[in-house]
Design brief:
about 140 residues, 6 helices, transmembrane helix, Putative oxidoreductase, globular
Length: about 140
Amino acid sequence: MHMDKPVVRDGALLIVRIVLGVIFIAHSWDRFAITGITETTGRFSAANVPQPKLTSWIVAIAEGAGGALLIVGLLTTFVAGALMLMVALGLYFVHLDQGIFIDSTHMGMEYPLVMLCALLIIVVFGSGRASVDGVLVRAEL
C-alpha cells in the first residue's frame, strides 16, 4: 500500500494542524487565564526577552489566533511560518541554554524543536484539502 496518496496526505495534514492548533490555543489560554499575563511577563523578563510585557501579549494573542487558524486551515502557510518564527525566538531566548530535555528544573529544547518540525510540515506541504484554504483553492478552479 502506498502512503503517497492525496487522501492520506490530507488526513495527516489535518491531524497535524488540529494537534498544533490545540496546543497553541492551550498555551494562549494558560497565558491569559491560568498563569496570567503578569506572571508570563515576569518569566519573559527573567529570560531577557525584549519588551517582555508587549511580547507576552503578542505571544498570547498569536498562540490563540494562530492555533484557531491552523485548526480551520485558513491562511495556514502564513500562520505556520509566523508561528515558526515565534517558536524559534522562544527557543533562542528561553530554551537554548537549558539542554535538550525538559525536566523539573530545565525547559529544554525538545518541545520547541518538535513544534518547529511540525510547523515546517505545514509550511512545506500546505494545509491540505480538508481546510478552508483547500476549499478556497478548489473554488477558484
